[in-house]
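During the no-cost extension, the postdoctoral fellow (Dr. R.K.) reprocessed legacy sequence entries with the updated structure-token encoder. One reprocessed record is reproduced below for audit purposes.
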Amino acid sequence: MRRSSVGIDGGFVRAAHKEGWFEVIAGKSVVAFRREQNDETPSTKCFGVVQTYTSVGFTPCKADAA
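Re-encoded structure tokens follow.
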């Protein structure tokens, strides 16, 4: 059995020339982990998805300062 790990993150990215916003989800998966220094490098895959696009009237939320 192979173990795998997936890390994901998301955020808002401003479009070129300030003409809108993209909501992006991106991540990386690792199929195996290296236990010893001489083990082979684990297989990895990266991915990204544009969830939405807004052209006007949008301001991303800012975290509240505590």
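The longest strand covers residues 44-54. The CA atoms of residues 22 and 53 lie 5 Å apart. The remaining legacy entries will be reprocessed before the final report is submitted.
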